[in-house]
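Weekly structure sync, notes
Attendees: PL (lead), two postdocs, one rotation student
Agenda item 3: pending single-chain targets
PL asked that the sequence for the first pending target be pasted directly into the notes so everyone works from the same version. It is reproduced below exactly as submitted, 215 residues in total.
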Amino acid sequence: MSDQPASLSLALALWEIGKVSSLRREAARALEYGQRALDVATEAHYVRLQARAKLLVRWASSELDPAASEAHLNELIAPPWRGPRTGRTLDMLHFVDICARAGRDALALEKISEAMEYVEQTDERVVEAELYRMRGELLKSTNEHDAGRSFTRAIDIARHQSSRSFELRAAMSLYRFKSGLQKKDAREDVRRVFETFTEGFETGDLLDAKAILAG
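Predicted structure, written out during the meeting:
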């Protein structure tokens, strides 16, 4: 039997469900489980988990109500990734997403650079492709060349990692970014990745891909 307190196990389990829900773009579910994790962690004084759950709650809330993103960001000035630990890149990804919704592109790009440095230092690459994709989204109105390179890099990394969800997401970003004949080619890349899925068709990314292919 583990001597880990039951309350910590519960808080971690709730937070993990919320985290997976965020990766599936299920904001309402992420909010529900993130808040439950936050409540348990707060009551039991698990400070670090409390901070991570709070970030998840603020991410989900900003996804559901983008207009409130600036207010949520102001509550996260001291983000919960002090010191090295597993999972830091996902936390930074959530923080960057809130920054982008709040129109704080410079801060978002700064945090992406920090996250990429952390990836190289620790080899924690689980969301590396998504970091590049988000970098492309942030740059596409100011630096088209670097934006295109970021989308392509995101696709290459996701493909190398056999991360079909992130590959599909990056392929859709590239499709929206391209025009003319290049857009047609990018659409076929979306189709190629979409057709490898056998489940999960109710998730946000696959619904978006289906809409692209039906257009």
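Discussion points:
- Residues 68-214 form a domain with the Serine Threonine Protein Phosphatase 5, Tetratricopeptide repeat fold (CATH 1.25.40.10).
- The chain has a mean pLDDT of 92.
Action: rotation student to compare against the earlier draft before next sync.
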